[in-house]
Design a protein that fits this description.
Helices cover 70% and strands 0% of the residues. The protein is an all-alpha fold.
């Protein structure tokens, strides 16, 4: 079930009420068992067979972590989630690539991609690795580990939650409270505003243009590229807000996943602000183990490039994703060649514009189904192609929305040394706070997109 559905609303209210009752009657243990059961029901709603795969990954992580000091057990703990991910997500991709490279015809397997597999396998991996590194102790309670890996707010599209951040919360007296619900519901409402009012409406325009880019004029192609940069931001940051807000209602805290990425003055800064949970995961469990910046500049560039290349592949089993990762890896390497950070206001403004244009350019490959489609978009823009002219109003509304929200965030953080993102939690005891909240509720109810538009990151 999607977060943006009536089914999820009924599910959420039922589970929240049941949790509030059970945690007072049965304590933490009863709450954990209930939330674990609810999480498996939530996951099985797509396909009940996926629950067995989730349980298998969890069981492997649990037992191998108990003996993580043993090299064979640790290897098994790392290998199991990687093999599961490789088989279900990448087997046909590598098989097709092999066939194309050597000119041999091979069949493909009819494999269904389980929802959220990229996220929960990474969480299982990080848990086993952190136990090996002695950053956390192996969890003796299977229920708690299973809840960490399968907790439904973050199960299907993140954020990627580290065990060291979440497991300690399960040992604390965290209960459903009015304060937590007030905070969490606000995040969920504004997340829905981003998703079903802004992102979903833009998806109609973006899908049409990227389906037949040769039919549209160059200005429409530029608008579609800009629209997709906003669509994917509103879609994924909206989901993150929903996940963080949902967890907060149950008394748990997730770290922010986005921090105003489009005000970044460099590619390096962008990747500190975009999909923060994935960026930090790749840095901690891939870039640093490869050597990070400890083995000289040349090796650092190689490590950066490999990390982003694999980060691109993580997003999808397609060479367009790999190329997208390579572009970002190359840009990160160029960033490291700069002698110093730009501190002047004009320099930062220019950096923001250049960074946004580059990121929007790379999103073309991220969105396009094939290199041919991506090339047709780029060629149409470069050659000032003639064709259908379409000015999509929702694109301009979304541009205005993100600009106003960004200015508001900067002004709100003017007393701090840096902008820390905008999570639009308002004071519901004030008139303007109530006005903003109920305005957002009204916009969600009145302008919600009613077509089929799944979350973008569900496919990853």
């Amino acid at each position: 079930m999607s977060f943006a559905s009536i089914e999820f609303f009924i599910f959420f209210i039922t589970v929240l009420f049941g949790t509030a009752v059970l945690e007072r009657k049965c304590g933490r243990k009863g709450k954990h068992i209930f939330l674990l059961t609810a999480s498996y029901f939530f996951y099985g709603y797509w396909d009940w067979r996926f629950c067995f795969l989730l349980l298998f990954v969890t069981t492997a992580a649990y037992f191998t972590a108990q003996y993580a000091e043993n090299r064979i057990a640790f290897f098994a703990g790392v290998a199991v989630p990687l093999i599961v991910l490789a088989v279900f997500k990448y087997f046909n991709f590598f098989l097709a690539s092999f066939s194309a490279l050597f000119g041999r015809k091979t069949g493909i397997l009819n494999i269904i991609l389980p929802v959220g597999i990229s996220f929960y396998t990474f969480q299982a991996l990080s848990y086993v690795i952190d136990v090996k590194r002695e950053k956390i102790s192996a969890e003796k309670d299977f229920i708690k580990l299973a809840l960490y890996i399968s907790f439904f707010p973050q199960l299907v599209a993140g954020p990627i939650v580290k065990a060291k951040d979440f497991l300690p919360q399960l040992d604390e007296e965290r209960r459903v409270s009015l304060k937590g619900i007030e905070y969490g519901v606000q995040l969920m409402v504004f997340g829905l505003l981003k998703k079903i009012v802004l992102a979903d409406h833009m998806s109609v325009f973006v899908d049409d243009v990227f389906y037949a880019p040769s039919a549209y004029d160059w200005k429409t192609l530029i608008l579609a590229a800009v629209s997709y940069s906003l669509q994917i931001y509103f879609d994924f940051s909206g989901y993150s807000d929903l996940a963080i807000g949902c967890a907060k209602c149950f008394g748990y805290d997730f770290l922010p996943n986005f921090n105003l990425p489009y005000i970044s003055a460099s590619i390096t800064e962008f990747w500190r602000r975009w999909h923060i949970s994935l960026s930090t995961w790749l840095k901690e469990y891939l870039y640093i183990p490869l050597g990070g910046n400890r083995k000289g500049k040349k090796r650092q560039y190689v490590n950066l490039f490999i990390t982003m290349l694999l980060g691109g592949l993580w997003h999808g089993a397609s060479w367009t994703f790999v190329f997208w990762g390579a572009l970002n890896g190359f840009a990160l390497c160029l960033d490291k060649l700069r002698k110093r950070e730009i501190s002047s206001l004009p320099g930062k403004a220019a950096g923001i514009v250049v960074t946004y244009c580059f990121i929007t350019f790379t999103w073309i490959f991220f969105r396009a189904d094939t290199f041919t489609d991506a090339w047709n978009v780029i060629r149409g823009i470069v050659t000032l192609q003639n064709g259908i002219v379409q000015n999509f109003m929702w694109s301009y509304i979304s541009i205005a929305f993100v600009m106003i929200a960004t200015v508001a965030a900067v002004l709100h953080s003017r007393k701090k040394n840096s902008v820390s993102g905008y999570y639009p939690v308002v004071n519901l005891n004030s008139f303007w706070g109530l006005t903003a909240f109920f305005t957002a509720c009204g916009l969600v109810l009145a302008l919600a997109f009613t077509g089929e538009a799944p979350f973008v990151y569900f496919q990853f």
